Amino acid sequence: MKQSRDVMFARLASFRIDADALRRHFLDHVCTLPSMPYRDNRVDYIGWAVTSRDGTLTDGIRRIPGKQPFVPGTAPTDACSGYLADVMDALRDAGLAPFRARIMQLESEGAEMPLHTDALRETWRLHIPIITNPNCFFEWQRADGSIESVHLPADGSAWLVRVDVNHRAVNRSNEPSSRAHLLMGLNPGPEFHMLAEPWLPVFQKSDAFAAAD
User: Fold this and answer.
1) Does 100 score more than 60 pLDDT?
2) HSE, side-chain direction, 13 A CA sphere, residue 81
């Protein structure tokens, strides 16, 4: 792997935030603000915009139609204060250009989102788990139909995921449990040197051999 396009999942290199401080800000401040319900691919969420196009808490929670002119949502909202604002500054200091940052809390338990793609060309999202459980996974489907599944721990790491590859979020917990992630778009995407293990390649060696036949 020599380019970011060769990778579909990785940790953001040399980056770690205080997971407990972010969790406290979410529970003590963000959760007191009005949230917006959102249903995406048969799965229910509630969300709070952290940065948006107009500075409101609701802009950017729902998917922005692709026919609209691209306007990056970078204006801070009422949620973007305290330690959460520090996290956003740290991501920019790391060389990223985040936009449409939001906190999405998965409400559906035991549900599997259908596999889907969000873009036709290399597109990355960054996730920082705030609250999770061991039964939450991010999954991709390879060309041969096999599924790659990873659990994103809420340990202060930032995780980079490709959304132009067939993917889904799943919560296989059969008991009430929350899963809340800070997530955002990146434009441009990360440079290869920003990617660190653990990571997953887009193509396995068997895929490359098959393509050469």
Assistant:
1) yes
2) 9
Beta strands in 107-150 (DSSP E): 111-112, 124-131, 136-141, 147-150
**Angle subtended by helix axes 19-28 and 82-93, to nearest 10:** 140
**Which residues does 110 contact at the CB level (< 8 Å), separation at least 6?**
171, 172, 173, 174
**Cβ distance 200 to 8 under 8 Å?**
yes
Question: DSSP labels for 177-200?
Answer: --EEEEEEEESS---GGGEEEEEE
Q: What is the pLDDT of residue 212?
A: 38
Q: HEC profile for 15-75?
A: CCCCHHHHHHHHHHCHHHCCCEEEEECCEEEEEEECEECCCCCCCCCCCCCCCCCCCCCCE
Query: Looking at 9-23, 62-76, 187-201, which range is the least confident one?
Result: 62-76
Biggest CA–CA distance in the chain, Å, is 58
**In which element (H, E) is residue 169 found?**
strand 167-171
| Tokens (6 digits) for 124 | 């990355």
Confidence of residue 37 (pLDDT cuts 50, 70, 90): very high
Q: How far is C-alpha 116 from the geometric centre of its chain's CA atoms?
A: 15
Indicate if the pLDDT at residue 29 is higher than 50.
yes
Instruction: Compute the average pLDDT of residues 33-52.
Output: 93
